[in-house]
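Researcher: Let's run the pair from yesterday's discussion. Sequence first, then tokens, for each.
Model: Starting with the first of the pair.
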Amino acid sequence: MKKTGILNRHLAGALAELGHGDLVLVCDAGMPVPDGPRVVDLAFRAGIPSFADVLDGLLDELVIEGATAASEVTEANPEAAHLLAQRLRGLDFITHDELKARSATARLVVRTGEARPYANVLLRCGVFF
């Protein structure tokens, strides 16, 4: 058994399959999950695991070259907005409706147990070299 890193076998396997430019949607429990992308649902209870914990774990595992969030997050969920601004350089904003539409092109959806609005972000994978 793995000793460090992501232990969830479904998530670890999905991350290993990602390539340059692939999109990963990290979302709260209320975000509509699009048909098509692979989904790893980590939600256990409201707030468990938190959006912050899942995002931090993914950022430890992935090279990210860009990120996009809903512009509504700044007013509706300032805590999530602050977290995203702290963790992701050059964060782009689009409307929540546009984010939902764009999430259909994601290769992977990781659903957290977050129970606060707009705790969602699309990550664009980079390369380590």
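Model: Moving on to the second of the pair.
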Amino acid sequence: MRYFINLLYKGTAYSGWQTQPDAPTVQETIERALTLVSRSPEPISIVGAGRTDAGVHARAMVAHVDLDLSPEEAEELRFRTDRYLPHDIALRSIVPVSEDAHARFSATARTYRYYLTTKKNPFAEEQMLRMHFSLDFERMNAAAAQLMVYSDFTSFSKLHTDVKTNNCRVTEAYWQRGAHDGEWVFTITADRFLRNMVRAIVGTLLQVGKGRLSPEDFAAIIESKDRGRAAASAPAHALYLEHVAYPPSIYL
């Protein structure tokens, strides 16, 4: 039976989501825990809704797993595995889905948020990007609105990836004030994201906010389809995967 695991993690100690040789990853850590706790004779594999870069966090990652267990047994496995996992990974729920449901390919939208602060805050140093100068968020929002006009985001993609297309449909992209004075949050939702895309976008928007680029320059960078024209990627530690959307029909 196929299940969706809803989970969250702090990515600081991991080299991203996806399993890779000689580096700790979230996927590998969960798979190892599931296999050990279930005492499965074969390794248990999971498939995530997407990749996150090293140091990026997730408040709402989804992964699918195939288990020869009833929903009640699957919930018991989730509970025991969650207790076994380290403090920076939590399995929130496990729900049965249709056998063709896929954590990555069935997703209809994903939302990321990037957090920054212009105020010194000892409690936010590992969670937000500290800015030491003021930014023009009105100009940054004018530039961010251009993301919904275009579909090819080669300029914001990591080079030499194995994807077939660099097209994405961005449905929202905006900055808004955060919960506390001096805090700002960038929210972006799209049907899919390229590797390093959100951090490259944020890094370039920061240049707009500093006055080094105009909103028109930002649009020209997108049109150029040249990663070299965009700015350096913003640091990973302030980026969070916040939501993954699926059609209701896949849930049993």
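Researcher: Give me one sentence on the second I can quote.
Model: Helices lie at 26-38, 71-84, 137-144, 197-209, 215-224.
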